[in-house]
Amino acid sequence: MAKYIVKRILLAVVSLFLICFITFFAMNAVPGGPFNGEKAKSAAVLEALNEKYGLNKPLPEQFINYMKNILHGDFGVSLTTNRDIAKTIGESFAVSAKLGGIAIIVALIFGVILGAIAALNRNKWPDHLIIFFVTLFTAMPSFVAASFLLLVFCIQLQIVPVWSVESQNYILPVIALSLSPMSYITRLTKTSMLDALGQDYVRTAKAKGVHPMKIIFVHTLRNALIPVITYVGPLTASILTGSLVVEKIFTIGGLGSKFVDSITKRDYTMIMGTTIFLATIMVLMNLVSDLVYKLVDPRIQLD
Q: Does residue 163 carry a pLDDT above 80?
């Protein structure tokens, strides 16, 4: 186990370095810059700004200097707002984490329940109905679902207020974020439960006269949840890092909206800081899911 963890940490470090390398040189290859606003600046002003933030140096030297600062925990300041990036990420991520956390819980609870119902009613109308909506939600991108929910429930019916600092209503953003992962968990749970229901230990339990509810919750659902648990890590990372479009649509001031704004404004330091932060979450959650998988099923060998 210890050897596996060390190996995964080393791979994580290499992955993060490659992400930094690719992101840094890719964003600098895009035409434009952080100081090319609507109001044109003089050549002298642009030169002074580039010198202030070290953008007048060759790209390899800029990358080396940036990585040195990162190793010391210094993400720098925003090139457009001059705010400390680490502080901005911390404040914005608190909003994104709350939204993502609720969406994860909703997706897990409803996904497992619907998947179990579909498996226990195979080829019956509840199964067909659940699979129909699950397929529909899987094919629907989150930004389409978010736009539809905003248009219908906020503008047309006016049942749910639009998200604002004063009325922080997370109902519609949570629904938009949780529909797709909930659908995947539903299908995953159904497939795993059907596989578990066909195992010898389930047939043995039925032959011994074990209560049907005990068979469902102890023998089938418990084993069916193992694949779901392994999906929780990537799910958490994908929701926390992939909520940027939903946040933008509902004007939620989370990390996702800050990331979109930084790309639009060519704010290089903000793009790098956000990318590194989100990539770290992705790597850590994948590692945690592997370790939890081992704890749930001790038969799994981690090499």
A: no
- Compute how many other C-beta atoms are within 10 angstroms of the C-beta atom of residue 152: 13
What DSSP line would sit under the chain, residue for residue?
-HHHHHHHHHHHHHHHHHHHHHHHHHHHHSS--TT--SSPPPHHHHHHHHHHTTTTS-HHHHHHHHHHHHHTT---B-TTT--BHHHHHHHHHHHHHHHHHHHHHHHHHHHHHHHHHHHHTTTSHHHHHHHHHHHHHHHS-HHHHHHHHIIIIIIIS--SPPP-SSS---HHHHHHHHHHHHHHHHHHHHHHHHHHHTSHHHHHHHHTT--HHHIIIIIIHHHHHHHHHHHHHHHHHHHHHH-HHHHHHTT--SHHHHHHHHHHTT-HHHHHHHHHHHHHHHHHHHHHHHHHHHHH-TT----
Residue type, 164: S
Residue 218 structure tokens: 């102890």
Specify the pLDDT at position 96: 82
Q: Please give the torsion angle defined by the CA atoms of residues 15, 3, 230 and 191, in that order, rounded to the nearest 10 degrees.
A: 120
- Average pLDDT on 131-152 reads 85
Alpha-carbon distance of 132 to 82, in angstroms, equals: 50
Amino acid at 14: V
> Please, which residues have CB within 8 angstroms of residue 288's CB and are 6 or more apart in sequence?
233
Structure tokens at 35: 């100081």
Q: Are 127 and 121 in contact (CB under 8 A)?
A: yes
**pLDDT at 286 exceeding the cut of 70:** yes
Among residues 257, 241, 207, the alpha carbon closest in space to that of 265 is found at 257
Q: How many CA atoms lie within 13 A of 52 on its CB side?
A: 13
Question: What is the distance between the alpha carbons of residues 169 and 219, in angstroms, rounded to a whole number?
Answer: 39
Q: Show the tokens assigned to 96.
A: 């994104």
